[in-house]
Amino acid sequence: MSDTATRYSGQAKISIRYHDNGECYSATVTSPDGKKALKGIRLSPFDRSRISADGAEAFDKVARAAISFAEHEGLEAYADVKDNGEAEITRRAPSTRTPKVPKGVTRSRS
Predict the structure, then answer these.
(1) Predicted pLDDT of residue 2
(2) 38-41: long-range contacts (C-beta < 8 A, 24 or more apart)?
(3) Mean pLDDT of 22-26
């Protein structure tokens, strides 16, 4: 059995799978257009005494590690990385829709 999760960093999409049988993670980092990808990232589990291997926090850590590998493959332009070098990770896709304007408010046209 394996669990999967998707994380995002900027415009980069990180697909993660935890493999129970091999007790490891695999990840793929993809650019927004889907043309550029780093596939086959294999990571060993880390200290399980603190977090569940297939929990949300574990998938967040794997996503950050995957972005670190992806930076060396030219995908850093799509990721959102803090000044300290750690990737900003979100658990849902960035919004691509225009926010609604409340009633009575008009948009300024510049």
Answers:
(1) 63
(2) 38/66, 38/69, 38/70, 38/73, 38/75, 41/65, 41/66, 41/69
(3) 81
What does each C-alpha distance from 91 to 60, 96, 103 come to in angstroms? 8, 15, 31
Query: 65-83, pLDDT tens digit by residue?
Result: 888 888 877 787 888 888 8
| Cα 24-25-26 angle, rounded to 5 deg | 130
Q: What is the pLDDT of residue 105?
A: 57
Count helices and strands in the chain by DSSP H and E runs: 1, 4
Higher pLDDT, 94 or 23: 23
The two tokens of residue 51 are 């977090």
57's CB contacts (< 8 A; 6+ apart) are 51
What is the pTM assigned to this prediction? 0.75
Strands (E), 11-73: 12-19, 24-30, 37-43
d(CA 106, CA 108): 6
